[in-house]
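Weekly puzzle thread! Below is a chain. First person to post its structure in token form gets bragging rights.
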Amino acid sequence: MLAQTPDKVPLAPGAAIRENTKAITLTESRWSKVKEILSEGVFTDPVKGNVIEHVAAKTAEGKPVYIGTRLKVVADKITEVEINFDDSARVNVKNLVPYDPLFNTIVPPEQRATREQLERIITSYFQGLTDRKPIEADYDARCDRYHSGNRVTHNPKNGVEESGDVGCYESNLGPKPWGPATEVRIGLVDPEHGIVIGYAILYYGNSPRRMQISELFKILDGRIRMVDNIGLMQDGITTSGFTQTSARLAAKTFFVCSLSQ
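Winning reply:
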């Protein structure tokens, strides 16, 4: 994508490609604006078949951007490309370059949760965005959440939310203007590094505006320690274009292809 040769990307026939929920071709992606990558975090899940990357970059004009890219790989071909591209003025590279090394640390075995436990914690997290009843035991008191590099917790002047000087748990308590969170998906689980990446469409009451959220969680000793969020507010979002059902179908295709080989 940096070399402006998207035709060399190994896409499967009929690959689903979406950027900020809109169906596109790779040649239409805002990646064409990117000149240089400044930092990156790359995570993989061989069970779900996803490779997900969060990248801080700059355009040819020197504008900072923050990009989340999910690739679904089946039988050595990319079947899904999901891009969350934030090129708004709120991108704050101060907290994105370098990418926080905490996300790449290996969790000691005694502090490590299972895949099932990690999925339960993050499923409950998104449920808390709907019913505003987060589970306190799932959060580390020091947990901070960042939106495209802006720390919105323990920071009363964050300029993004009005939660005040509170942590991740308190900021999700009700009443809040958002909810429900729909189309919740777990895209990646990495127990060794304590990483879960989840997606959802977040409603804002009766407003036509919706936020597509892609959140990367670091979990230590069964508690959410840090959240790296790319949240894109737009009018008229009805779907991300990807669901848990499509993920299961892709997994089924993978196993069928594997058996046929």
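Puzzle host: Confirmed. Bonus trivia for everyone else. The two ends are 31 Å apart (CA to CA).
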